[in-house]
Amino acid sequence: MKLPNSLTKPASLPVLITILVLSYLLPGCGEDSGGDDPTPAAPTITTINPTSGIIGTEVTIIGSNFSSTTGENTVTFNGITATVTSASSTQLVVEVPENATTGAVAVVVNDQRVEGPTFTVIPANLYDCNNDEITENTTWEDVEPGDAVDYVIHCAISVKGNALLTIEPGVTIAFEGEESGIFTSEGGGLKAVGTASSPIKFIGSSENKGTWKGVYFASNHPENWLEYVTVQHAGRTASSQSDEKGAVQLTRKEDSKAAIVNCTIDDNDGYGIFITEESVLSEFANNVITNNTAAPIGLYFNQLGALDAASDYQGNGETYVEVRENAIDAEAMTLAMLNVPYRFVESSKYDINQALTISPGSILEFGNGAGFRLGDQSSDCVTTTGSLNASGTEENPIIFRGIAEGKGSWLGIGFNSSSPNNRLIYCEVSGGGSSKLYNAAKFAANISLQCESKLTMQHTTISESGGYGIYLLDEDATLDTFEENALINNELAPIYLQLPQVAYLDAASAYAEGNGRAYIEVAGGNVEEEDLTIAKLEVPYRMAVDPSGRPTYIEKVLTIMPGVTLEFENAAGIILGSPSVDCIATAGGFHAVGTAEEPIVLKGTTEGQGSWLGIGINSSTADNQLIYCNISGGGSKKMYNAGGKGNIVIHCKGKAEVKNCSITNSGSWGIDFVQGGNTLIDENNSFDNNADGEVAPN
User: Fold this and answer.
1) What's the mean pLDDT when you consider all of the chain?
2) pLDDT tens profile 481-505
3) Which residues contact 643 (CB under 8 A, 6 or more apart)?
4) Closest among 330, 408, 397, 339 to 367, alpha carbons compared
5) First to last CA, the chain
6) CA 568 to CA 603: how far, in whole Å?
7) For a Cys-Cys bond, which of 44, 210, 551, 637 suits 573, CB 3.0-4.6 Å?
8) What is the DSSP letter of 641?
9) Is 20 helix (H, G, I), strand (E, B) or coil?
């Protein structure tokens, strides 16, 4: 070919240099670079899930540097190639191949091989599901050596017709499928009793929670028994009887009954054990219930006595024993101290109509609307044989608290029983008082007593109530022994009671800290049956009129100790005599003898003249003494039908000794008289700012 003239002439030097530089820089020019594509990164295996299963089990392999094209990944189980069903760069899903044996899982990508964890192949001793109903006594033997799987079950095995299925020690059963499991009904029984050295195992065909359904007892066969049995990987679907997922269940169909002893129930979806309302745990001891997604056990109030302190309930998705509502009314019951709390989850009153004893160290938690009530649901003051004995120790107090923190998160505890076994000793009761416990109640409280109920309370803390700390609804309610308690941080007053009930309170208890009303609230009440002494507390007593609007009447001797403060609401006061007539002689006495260091204070709840009724004296007893008292603000209205208005009013043949007192701010007289014949010993008193004067003419 003839070249153009321009290309036949010699090139100039700059042109040649340019050509040489371009030939060096341009791709494909000059010498061969000899470069190859970089070597792909080797695959890695982080985990496989599950790590065991039967032939055909789906296994997920997590790692890196896999191919997203399924055919470019080769997976083997101990050298047997598996089918890859899906692939991404970080995950492969495969099925355990036929003829696979236990060994390492390996992946090959781009001729680079990585070996991962061991997969254990469960032998496929498939149970014939054409025989899924067992109606004759049957025994399953240990047919494989060691821990090998003896039976693989893909269906629901139903034991019925009074037949008994006996499973011998050492048997391992692998279940596969959402309905697979063992179920008793129509009188059928399941007896699975292993030994410590040869336990029985009910497991899933894979190690995933919820691989199979579970073991359900729906019969009361006398030999329903699980002992030294491990139950794992159950809870695939909910029971049609309980509507709950759980590994082992006692269902309501035939008021089922079973024993569970020395068993391990772990790694299941739902409850470890669930027991429906009419079922019975005939024996329960030394079990381990852990790593289940819900609570270790769900059951009803009257079944709690079956649980034992030696069992382990920790490590589950819900860290408590779940208690549903019914009543204790068949027999006495004791709650063991568990290593998790009891949690009362239903918004209902849990009624106690038999003796309930709570072991030291127990923790009881209550949902909103839940609480304990001694008494019948339909009526309030029906006599009940129920009792609550919660006697803890200083080292192991018993705790009653709300699930949620804060005031008024649950109902509280209501007593309507006169049993001497009603005790709260070394207890902590907090967060109650969300609502009233009894129909007749007007107020909420951590602790409510009504009718003729009795309670011993010692070394107990009552706190965080949404109402009162303690509420004594009826004047017949009794605090038999009340010693060294602490009533703190309650929304209202530490205690609400009637005047005769103040005798139960002790000076060693704490009443002052953090309560919304910093006083003992006294809702009227007359002193008619026994003499009464009012002890000095760290807070005042606040006196109200009774529900009829009348002041307090004293027909026995009322003694007020030095240092006591009594505050009176408007129209409240103390009158010696009967509310029906004025001038009938009474043996009642008013004995208020303080000291110069600890005077007795009688005053209104508000400052100023005439903010409360005053003190009325209508007896001639020598007990009528007011010595070292500060009396202020009485005289809001006339004291008796016949008149009298002042801080102190002496009526008919009344007699009073008033010494070393400060008498101030009366709405009328400092001391007044009614109907003559009165006697006043007046020594060393001071008067100030009384509207009508110091002492009225007699």
Assistant:
1) 90
2) 999 999 999 999 999 999 999 999 9
3) 674
4) 408
5) 157
6) 6
7) 551
8) T
9) helix
Size of the chain, expressed as the number of residues it contains:
698
- Please determine, for residue 542, whether its predicted confidence score (pLDDT) is greater than 90: yes
**Angle formed at CA 626 by CA 622 and CA 628, multiple of 5 degrees:** 135
Mention every residue, 6+ apart, whose C-beta is less than 8 A from residue 62: 45, 46, 47, 48, 49, 90, 91
Whole-number Cα distances in Å, 209 to 258, 261, 270, 293, 377: 24, 23, 9, 9, 42
Residue 148: predicted pLDDT: 87
Percent of the chain scoring above 90 in pLDDT? 76
Strands 371-374 and 349-352: parallel
Q: How far apart are CA 315 and CA 312, in angstroms?
A: 9
d(CA 429, CA 382): 26
Residue type, 61: I
On whether the CB atoms of residues 461 and 427 are closer than 8 A, the answer is: yes
Q: Answer yes or no: are the C-beta atoms of 473 and 450 closer than 8 Å.
A: yes
Position 596 confidence tier, pLDDT thresholds 50, 70, 90: very high
Write out pLDDT tens, residues 299-344. Answer: 999 999 999 999 999 999 999 999 999 998 888 999 999 999 999 9
Tokens representing 179 are: 């309905």
Using CA atoms, how far apart are residues 624 and 616, in angstroms rounded to an integer?
11
Which of residues 616 and 11 earns the better pLDDT score?
Answer: 616
Q: In what order do the strands lie in the sheet with 557-560?
A: 532-534, 557-560, 589-593, 625-627, 655-659, 679-683
Asked whether 670 and 611 are in contact (CB, 8 A), the reply is: no
pLDDT exceeds 90 at position 613:
yes
d(CA 277, CA 242): 9
